[in-house]
Every structure is written in C-alpha cells, then in structure tokens.
Amino acid sequence: MTDSADDTGGYPAARLRLLQDGAAGGPGRRAALARLTDDWLAALLARAATEAGVTGVALAAVGGYGRGELSPRSDLDLLLLHDGRDGPGAVAKLADHLWYPVWDLGLELDHSVRTPAEARTAARDDLKVQLGLLDARHLAGDPELTASVRTAAYADWRESAPKRLPELHDLCQERAARQGELQFLLEPDLKEARGGLRDATALRAVAASWLADAPRGGLEAARTRLLDTRDALHLVTGRATDRLSLQDQPQVADALGAADADTLLRETYEAARTISYAADVTWREVGRILRSRSVRPTLRGLLPGRAANRVERSPLAEGVVELDGEAVLARAARPERDPVLVLRAAAAAAQAGLPLATHAIRRCAAAADGRPLPEPWPAEARDELVTLLGAGAPTVPVWESLEVEGMLPRLLPEWERVRCHPQHNPVHTWTVDRHLVETAVRAAALTRRVHRPDLLLIAALLHDIGKGLPGDHSVAGADLARTIAARLGFETRDTDVIAALVRHHLLLIETATRRDLDDPATVGAVADAVGDTGTLELLHALTEADALATGPAAWSTWRAGLVADLVGRVAARLAGEAEPDTNGADEPTAEQERLAVEAGRTRGPVLALHTRTEAPAEDGAAPPVGVELLIAVPDQPGVLPAAAGVLALHRLTVRAADLRTLDPIGDGRVLLLSWRVAAEYGSLPDADRLRADLVRALDGSLDIPARLAERERAYARRTRPALAPPPSVTVAPGTSRTATVIEVRAQDAHGLLHRIGRALEGAGVCVRSAHISTLGANAVDAFYVTGTDGRPLAEEAARELAEAVQNALV
C-alpha cells in the first residue's frame, strides 16, 4: 500500500496530482490510477471488515477497472464477494462502510454483493454480468474467493460460447443500430457506437471463448487510441462522458497533441474502422465455426471416409474460389506472378456478394512488394476495378477490407488524403472516402442509362478526391483525376471526360436549384462547360449518384425534376435544337393562373396549401412528406420579407422556394411565390390564418421583426449556439445577362429569408425571381435582382448590395 492512498484524505490529493500531471498520460496513467485506487480500496476493505466483524470476504474489480484501465471519470465497477458464513446484516454493514466513502468523494460506483455461487448464477442469467466477470481482478481480502469466481466464469463462458456468442453478436448489432458507426459520426460516442470500446471488449470476450480470435494487426493500438481520447475528454469536460461533441473537440485535440479537431476526428475514425473491421472478420469466423459444428455431425453420418470432412470450393474467377462463405485464393494461385489477382479477387468477391478473406488480401499485399502493377495499368486491371465498383452494395465491405489491410493505398496512393477525412456539413452522412465509394455504389444502379458505364464509375469514385487540398476541391480534384485515370490506362479522350466530370460534378445541381432556367445565359453557361451530349449524359447520372450518396436531404423528386429540366434544355442547346417542351413546367399551372386572377381581382393575397408526397425511394426508405404553399399577391414593395416573416412566425421551415412575376393581370403585375415548407412541430397552420397575417404584414400592422426577435431570444435561451461559419453573400458574375444574381450561403435560422428580403427591399432593388434551397442546416439562396430601370446593377452597386445583405445577416 502506498503512503499517498492510505486513507480517504490522502487518496483524493494523490488522485488529483496524478490527473494534473501533464507528463503522464495514456496507458501508464490509467494503470497508475488503477493501482492508486486499488491501494485505497484495499485499506477501506480492511478497515470495514474489522468494524463489521466480518471474515471470508474479497473485493474484486470487474469491467474496465478489472482490466486495470481506469479513466479519469470512469465508474468503479466492484464486486464484494463473501463466503456466506456471516449473516446478511453483517455483510450489509461491511458494504455500507465500503461504498459510502466512495460516494462521499463523488465517484460513480457500480457495485454488487454476492457469494461465489450467486455470482456464477447471475452470470448464467445475465450476459453482461458474465462478460464483466471475465475481467475480474482481485483487489483485497481472500484471493481464493476471487480466483474461484474467475475460474468458474471462464469455464462457464467457454462451455456456453456456442449459445452465448450469437446473443453477444445480437447485442452488438442492436447497439450499432442505436448509436451509429463511430467512424462516420461528427459527434461520436467513443464507447457505444459501432467500432467503439464496447466492440473492442466484445472481441476480447470472443477470444476468451477459444472459439475464434480477432485479427490482431493494429487492434490494440486502435483501442488504446480511443481510450486516450476518452481520458482527454474526461479531463477537458470534467464529466464522465463518452460523447466527443463538436464544442469539446478542439480542446481534446490540443490535450492529445493533435494539430486540430479534424486531425483528432480522423485519428478517431481510423481507430474505429480498425475495430469495426476486426469485428466483421471475427463475427464472420464465429458464424462459420458455429455452422460447421451444427452441420458436420450430420454429414459425418451420411458421407463415407474423408468425404465427410471435405469442404467444397466453387470457382469464382481465375485464381479465386468460394470457400465456406468467403472469396479466397485458389490453391494454384500465385499472386507473386499475377499482380492483377488482388483486383480480380476483389471484383469476384463483390460480384458474388461475398467477403474477401483476410488472408487472401495479405498474400496479395505481400506479393505486391515484389511485383506491383505496371503503369499504366493493363486493361485487365482496369476492367477488374470497374467490375468491383459496378457490383453495387457488396462493393463496400470488399473495398473496406482492401483499405484496412493496406492494399488500397498501393493501388491508389491519392486515396490516403481522403481516408477517414471528416465532413462537417451535416447533410453528409459519410466521411469523404466512404462517400466516394457510396457514390460508386449509387452510380452502379445507373449504368444502364449511360453509354460509358466505366467512365461513370471511375468519375464517381474520384469526384471528391480533391477534398482536403487548398482551393476549390472540384478544380484540384479534376487535375488529380486526370493523373489517376491516365495511370489506370484510360486513353487521353477518356481521361479528359473523367476530369471534366470531376470538375463539374456540382454544376447541374447548383445551377438547377439556384439559377433561373428561363434565362438563356444559364443554359448557355452549362452547355459551354459540359461541351457535348455524351459528357452531359454522364454528368446527369453522376449528379444523381452523388446526391443520393450524400444523404436524404440532398435529393428529392423536386430536385431530380429540376436537374432533368436543365439537362433537357442543355441537351437541346448542344444539339442545336430549340429547347424542349417541358410539359408546361415554366408556364403557370391552371391553379396558379386561378390564384393570380383572384389576386388581381381582389388586390390582395390569395393562398393555397397542398400536402405533397415524394415518390418512394429506390432503397425502399419511407418517402418524405412536404407541403406546397402557393401565394399570389399583387406586385408591391415588401412582399418577399412579409411572406417569409409570416411563415417563420407560424414555425414553417422553408425547404425550397421560387418567386416569379406573372404578366400583367387586371391593373398590374402579380407575384407568384411557390414554397415547399415543413412544420417544425405540430400541425400545419390554417391557410386563412396565414392569409390574414400576410395582409397585416403588408399593411404594416403586424410587426414581424419585433415578433421574430422575441422568438429568437426565447429560442437562444433554450438551445446552445450552433458552431457554424459566418454567412457569405456574393455576386455571381456572368450568370445572367438580364439581372444581377446575389447568392447567399448561411446557416438556416428562424427568419433568415425575412432578413434577406428586408435587406433587398431596403436597397431599393427589384427582385425579379428568387430560388431558395435548404440542405440540412445550410441555406443557399439566389436572388435575381435589377435596378428600378429593369437592368442589371452596375458592378459597384452590386458589390454594395452584397455587403448590405451580409451586414443584415451578421
């Protein structure tokens, strides 16, 4: 027992000194904290046993504390064992003398009091108890009590493993479904998310069963990395938390010596990916072993001699066979003589929907050191890569296996830059590397729509390869894509197409949702950038695949329709034809005309609300439901800010909007505003109430700015401020010949569009049309404005207008 922990007064001071020691950290500090706590608890037990008059007891640590890994704010998981000879009252008194000093120090305690027999019974009834006992470590008292419990726990675990391992696997899957995958979360739970510390503990339990073992390469280092990160998180926050929140990441990164929060996230993701991969391989092996145990006894009774033990190998490709549910190398395969074998095996595995065996990748990786792929790649290698990417969803686990085993960087060195690269835009579901693979998966379903599926799949894989480089990632990515495509063996004209697709992969979606498609300059600019109909066809498919792979907020029937409309117009321009008839999409519908006529007749606003349902998604996900709000109002100052303010007051979130002016009706022009909105919560407001408030807003009797300011103050009291970059307001040059385009990018917020509208009205410009788009928490809005003379603004006036809008949003 150390002098620093010989009593309750000494332990807190010694603990504090240890945690404040900047030179200490990592596994050494966790072990030192565990030893310090061991000594303190041993002294407590000795004193408590004497005061309670109890003998035949032992104190054991279980769980993480049992492994000697005590983080700064970890619970103390303790098991008080007794031989049952003393009465319940005496044991209860002993427990009180032991637990209360722990609670008095404010330490979290997870405790139980049992005899060895009771501990064994509890473990048989509760899987979590059984897993905890596998890490039981003696602290004080009778060591034979602890040894008997530990020995029984391991014996019972190994005996019951065929039954309990599937139960453990189910628990891991349920937790993953609840918590998500650590390697993709912006605010991950280091313990509970898939690939976190719970999964690492589960792998230890599998190894303890003697039934299977996890791949050891990098696993312990990954687990240590997560533990170090959790330690730093505990010290930074002063709380027992496992969630690495955005606001804490910079301080945690600094505590760990990481360059910045992105570096911290990337290292955390890499650790989680290693653990996730090890879990996939391990659980696959467990399943294989359990299946063999359940099937082979039957087979042995039916088949003579060695036939009962023979495992069938089914050919998949040259040098690749299926064996027991995995793609493995054939016995005659020679990867040292066949550098394309790893790609052939990966493509065959993905096409068959099978995992690629770890040992197959490792054999190919070892052989690649002696004979890498020639540059440019032979046609077979390029074809196998395209085949791998075209397999759809089964591509993902095969690709991740190549990556974790270190094979991928040898094939595509540029991949290292985007590997585990975080994306802070909440619209994105994945890290950059996984998003690229997911885009290829989505593109695989669209290959029947294009004349060159190979170019589509390669462009999908590379479209964001420039992220992480200085400047526009599309420009940087195009240069990288050209280099990579040439290395893959594509001809010059094909590398030009791939580079163009990467350069312009955002062109269609941004133009369709933020620009006026009726403006000839819009279609002309896209036609000039794309160049030919073949590239346009590929770009259309890439745009859809990219959006689908981004997240549910990035694609919808509405966005698909806008992009298709733009593509039709550009195709006609490239073919030298008149722009196609879009079925009246640019002409007012019958309902819009009716509303406009009514607005012109009554000289007041007219509204219509309609619930809209998107077409079912291809993946079977539940289709989102939105609301379309049509407003027709005689042209007058303040319509846009008034309408936007009324929607904000009624807690309607604007997902998209379009404003345009209809030809003179009656005594003047009519503005038609088409909104796609959703209620923040509760039911939708009544259209009559919306109209009444809009009338009041237009005549000045409803003070919208004051009402919105009051609501914003109340909202700020209930929520913490979001970490978001400042708004950006720019002039989009060369976008239109008939108007000045002001583009606003900002964090979506209550009354944002109202503030923008007020700034535009205050500047005395005319809003000819507006195109509002919201993706997750980000709003990207484009406003086509003119002066009072109906002409585009002069350069200086446009710049001043952008500054005025920017100032209104700060």
Automatic annotation (TrEMBL):
GO biological process: regulation of nitrogen utilization
Gene: glnD
Domain HD: start-end pairs: 432-533
Family: Belongs to the GlnD family.
Entry protein name: Bifunctional uridylyltransferase/uridylyl-removing enzyme
Domain ACT: residue ranges: 628-711, 741-810
Transferase among keywords: yes
EC number(s) stated in the UniProt entry for this protein: 2.7.7.59, 3.1.4.-
Cofactor annotation: Mg(2+)
Activity regulation field: Uridylyltransferase (UTase) activity is inhibited by glutamine, while glutamine activates uridylyl-removing (UR) activity.
Sample GO molecular function, one term: [protein-PII] uridylyltransferase activity
Domain characteristics, as noted in the entry: Has four distinct domains: an N-terminal nucleotidyltransferase (NT) domain responsible for UTase activity, a central HD domain that encodes UR activity, and two C-terminal ACT domains that seem to have a role in glutamine sensing.
Catalytic activity: [protein-PII]-uridylyl-L-tyrosine + H2O = [protein-PII]-L-tyrosine + UMP + H(+); [protein-PII]-L-tyrosine + UTP = [protein-PII]-uridylyl-L-tyrosine + diphosphate
Annotated keywords: Hydrolase, Magnesium, Multifunctional enzyme, Nucleotidyltransferase, Repeat, Transferase
Biological source species: Streptomyces natalensis ATCC 27448
